[in-house]
Specification:
Layout (H helix, E strand, L loop, with lengths): L2 E4 L6 H16 L4 E5 L5 H10 L5 E2 L7 E5 L15 E7 L13 E4 L5 H11 L6 H14 L10 H14 L4 H12 L7 H7 L1 E6 L2 E10 L9 H14 L4 E8 L4 E8 L3 H7 L7 E5 L4 H12 L3
Helix pairs in contact: 1-3, 1-4, 2-6, 3-4, 3-5, 4-5, 7-8, 9-10
Bound molecules: magnesium ion (3 copies).
Length: 307
Amino acid sequence: MSVYVVGHKSPDTDSVASAIAYAELKKAMGMDAIPAMQGELNPESTMVLNKFGFAAPELMTDGAGKQLILVDHSDIAQAPDNLDQAEILEIVDHHKIGDITTNNPIFFSAQPVGCTGTVLKQLYEIYNVEISKNIAGIMLCAILSDTVLFKSPTTTDADKQACEGLAKIAGVDDMNGLAMEMFKAKSAVEGVAAKDLVFRDYKDFDMNGKKVGIGQLELVDLSLIDAVRDDLYSACQEVKTEGGRHSVFLILTDIMKEGSDLMAVSDDLSIVEKAFGKKLEGKWVWIDGMMSRKKQAVPPLQKAFGA
Ligand code: MG
Ligand code: MG
Ligand code: MG
């Protein structure tokens, strides 16, 4: 039976690259592993896979009757549907431990580093499997993407070290140039429906029994979305209503200014001040230094929700 290696819903470059890279490692170790993803490639991931010569992984959103290896998440809300009818064999991640449980003991490798790619680099070393040139390329891109070229506070020395090693294998001399190419690709917002932008990099969380959605748009310049801010807000309202969510947040990150406008729709908007110490100024508020959903948005929100 094939084993699907799959990242989270609304896949980002790490979720896609790690599915491919870990499937390669498992194949090298004799497993019939298939990389998969739970949604369409975003513009950045499209660029990355093209650059290093990979086809898009198979779409797979229903876990029923399948054996799965999860990468880049361990939350039920971000995993394939019907997870209770799937068998989870392994999890490799770099987030907080989520709410997934298993009946059997499994291989679970999570580290507080900036990217699943960094954990995978170490697993390749532990199992003494050579990383091929193109796999190294997409792993490198995943780390550069997740750490926003090491600007995110999630960045660790392990991430930088992994990138140095991977860049050598991939034959990449100009990491900054590669990162800029990715940032430009991910800044492509023109002509994209507001709701698709909300879901481009989006995660649902269970916060003390309340369904909370958090999207993030990382842009080289926030002026790129000047014309669509109100549409983004309406889209957040729609997403909130449709999914029976308590709150939807959209983190509009300016990669260059290293901060974010936090947009919020909620049944209780006081949660914003509770979590971040700042009141909304209309539909959003600028939070200086905010780059990371997992480190700077999720933990204070969970605390504010009393989870
Ligand atoms: Mg991810
Ligand atoms: Mg990641
Ligand atoms: Mg990210």
